[in-house]
Every structure is written in structure tokens, then in C-alpha cells.
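Possible regression after last week's pipeline update?

I re-ran a chain I had predicted before the update to compare outputs. Posting the input and the new output here so someone can diff against the archived version. Not blocking, just want to make sure nothing changed silently.
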Amino acid sequence: MSLERVTITIPSETLSAAKEAADREGMSVSAWLSRAAERAAKIEAGLIAAEEVLAEIGPPTPDEQAWVDAFMDTVTRPVANDDTDAGDHAA
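New output (post-update):
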């Protein structure tokens, strides 16, 4: 993987939060921001793909949408950091 040096401008509060998060994970701020950008780009690509599919097949039925909503609630639910919840979440 090749790396490139770039200059970015972000709000001070965002940088502070990124520094704290990187420190918690034992990462450099650069590595943490790189991972965050990669994740954001993947999410954006997924949203674009979903829009393209919906343009072809139309919107989901109310039952299909209810299933999607329930699924997303399950996979995005925060997980406690104790051993009793280990393995109880998707993703």
C-alpha cells in the first residue's frame, strides 16, 4: 500500500476527539483518520449502490421496510463492554 502525505483542515473539536479515539485504540491519529475515511468511503459506496438498486426495483413494501428497520436496529445496537455480552452482536 502506498501512502501519501496530505494537509487537511478540520475543526479543533473534531481533531481532539480523533486524538482521544486514536489514543484509546493505541493508534496514531493518522492511522485512525485513515481508517475512518476508508470506512466512510465504503458506506458512501454502499449507499450509492442501494440507491441504484432501488431505482431499478422500486421501494420496499411496508413489510420489507419493517424487516430492514428491525435488522438495522439489531446490528447497530451498542454492545456493553463486559463478558456477558461477548458475541451477542453482529458485525
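Follow-up from reviewer: compared with the archived run. The two ends are 25 Å apart (CA to CA). Marking as no regression found.
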